[in-house]
Design brief:
mainly alpha; 7 helices; about 0% strand; elongated
């Protein structure tokens, strides 16, 4: 998810400040973003080279986002941005990217908090199991 956050920031900067079209932006993302976002947008770029528009290329590849380990909520958020990309003026797209980036940051923070909580639970279970094993072996 963090790679998609970086990709959205890059898209926003390229579209709003440089007034770039989507094809060169996808080239930059595929080259500069590591992880799932770089791979995914590289595939979208390749589909666009065959004559597809961004929207149709995205829609044809959207199911592969689940294979990258993203949740339904993550895919919905990415799809929301994809539906708006190229359809509105640069400032409106920039606002959408900012809103999506804020929601992604919240999602990442929530996942980190949940991970920390589960980590404490698993650590406690592990210690308890170790103590039980020690008591049984004595």
């Amino acid at each position: 998810m963090r790679s998609f956050l970086a990709a959205f920031e890059l898209m926003r900067a390229e579209i709003v400040f440089r007034q770039s079209e989507i094809a060169p932006v996808l080239e930059t993302i595929a080259r500069d973003c590591s992880g799932a976002a770089g791979k995914f947008y590289g595939l979208v770029r390749d589909k666009m080279h065959t004559g597809m528009t961004f929207g149709t290329a995205y829609l044809s590849l959207a199911p592969s986002l689940y294979e990258l380990g993203l949740t339904e909520r993550d895919v919905d958020l990415i799809s929301e941005v994809a539906r708006a990309t190229g359809r509105f003026d640069a400032m409106t797209q920039g606002e959408l990217f900012c809103g999506a980036a804020a929601r992604m940051t919240e999602e990442i923070s929530a996942c980190a908090a949940e991970c920390a909580q589960k980590g404490r639970v698993y650590r406690a279970v592990g210690i308890t199991a170790g103590v039980m094993l020690a008591l049984v072996s004595i």
